[in-house]
Design goal:
The chain has 421 residues and is α+β, with helices and mostly antiparallel strands. A 4-stranded mixed sheet has the order 13-14-20-17. Strands 1-7-6 form a 3-stranded antiparallel sheet. Strand 18 and strand 19 form a beta hairpin. The longest helix is centred in the last third of the chain and has 24 residues.
Length: 421
């Protein structure tokens, strides 16, 4: 985060006034002042929730050495720009409960709102499947590693469950570093505390759980059976709720598999429809054809034309109910489209030409000698139009570049100036 230092002195006394302490207050003074003000204004005792939030926000900033230094020098605006909301990113009830061993309200009967848990991140894995798998349906067994709460210490990290607030981050789990980039320009960054790995608390070495070594979680192997249903689509998600990494005071996230359909050498898929290419000879296109098409489930489909049917180049035929299954509608399928191309012969002999002329409609009347005498004779040659256009475009670009070089001349761009009399 980059911020230009303020040109005028910013308000940096508000948080001290909220807690009722001087700017020279020690960390111990801040704790006492916060505890007194928080108990007095706690919503469970009829206090104002907004006032309670302000008190927690003030203490969160002033109890963190880095945040306090930024606040004293630049005021609340710098914290808002760098960390959002004046640095008040933590739940005010969480801050309050940390003074009473995480037990929530000290007034008896429990807190009226309870401790809010954050949600863990989802773990997303791509799942590559063939078109045959999506046509028939299949089950994949996948082995994954995940973190689970340590069973020996119940996710507390220590034998007795005892821990202390991290002195490096004052229990926030985060640290703020500030760097001077230049006159009036600073860079402010927030990162997890290295001392406590972002947990906000530390455990004495002699109290660490021997199984998890104080990490509160252990790694385990888990095998998931992923059911790929008939007709599922590319990029469709299969979710295993609450199966991601576990962590203390955290709602476990999901494991999500995203289907990645592999390319098929023969069939192309568009939604619930399938497309396949087939080339006919000129004889087949004119006189009829039949061929066998092996489907995705290994069935042999006999494909044949109707009597007297002529297939034109670049035309399509469709077969109903031979496309992909419709997901979760097992008795419905899309269509199978066959795209026909026609393979024409490179040349014909005179006898072949006469034979074809005998059965095909006669061409338009030949031109008379008088009409042809008035024409200029030309010669046709075969051409790949895409290559031809590509070469022309390249030649035009090169010619344009040459024109630019000529205009600039050997000494660079020439400028015309008016001569003064």
């Amino acid at each position: 985060m980059f911020r230009r230092g303020p040109s005028s002195k910013s308000d940096n006394t508000k948080f001290y006034e909220i807690l009722g302490v001087p700017k020279t207050a020690s960390p111990e003074d801040l704790k006492k002042a916060y505890k007194k003000a928080a108990i007095k204004n706690h919503p469970d005792k009829g206090g104002d929730p907004e006032k309670f939030k302000e008190i927690a926000q003030a203490y969160e900033v002033l109890s963190d050495p880095e945040k306090r230094e930024i606040y004293d020098q630049y005021g609340e605006d710098a914290l808002k720009e760098g960390m959002g909301g004046g640095g008040g990113g933590h739940d005010p009830f969480d801050i309050f409960s940390s003074f009473f061993g995480g037990g929530g309200s000290p007034f008896g009967g429990g807190s009226s709102r309870g401790r809010r848990q954050r949600r863990g991140e989802d773990v997303v894995h791509p799942l590559k499947v063939s078109l045959e798998d999506l046509y028939l349906g299949t089950t994949k067994k996948l082995s994954l590693s995940r973190n689970t709460l340590c069973s020996k210490c119940n996710g507390k990290g220590s034998k007795s469950g005892a821990s202390s607030t991290c002195s490096g981050c004052q229990g926030s789990g985060m640290k703020v570093s500030i760097r001077q980039l230049g006159p009036g320009m600073i860079q402010q960054m927030q990162h997890p505390c290295h001392d406590c790995k972002g947990t906000g608390e530390t455990i004495n070495d002699r109290d660490r759980c021997p199984q998890c070594k104080g990490d509160k979680v252990v790694s385990e192997k888990k095998v998931l059976e992923v059911a790929v249903e008939k007709g599922m689509q590319h990029s469709q998600k299969i979710t295993f709720s609450g199966q991601a990494d576990e962590a203390p005071d955290t709602v476990t996230g999901d494991i999500v598999f995203v289907i990645q359909q592999k390319e098929h050498p023969k069939f192309k898929r568009k939604g619930d429809d399938l497309f396949v290419e087939h080339t006919l000879s000129l004889t087949e296109a004119l006189c009829g054809f039949q061929f066998v098409l092996t489907h995705l489930d290994k069935r042999q489909l006999l494909i044949k034309s109707s009597p007297g049917e002529v297939v034109k180049p670049d035309s399509y035929r469709a077969i109903t109910d031979e496309g992909m299954p419709v997901h979760q509608r097992p008795f419905m399928k899309g269509k199978l489209y066959i795209h026909f191309t026609v393979d024409f012969p490179d040349s014909l002999s005179p006898d072949q030409t006469k034979a074809i002329e005998a059965v095909l409609p006669k061409p338009k009347a030949d031109l008379s000698d008088m009409e042809t005498d008035e024409c200029e004779e030309t010669t046709l040659h075969e051409v790949n139009i895409e290559d031809e256009m590509r070469r022309k475009a390249q030649a035009q670009r090169e010619a344009y570049d040459d024109d630019d070089d000529d205009e600039e001349g050997p000494g660079g761009p020439q400028r015309v100036q008016c001569a003064q009399q």
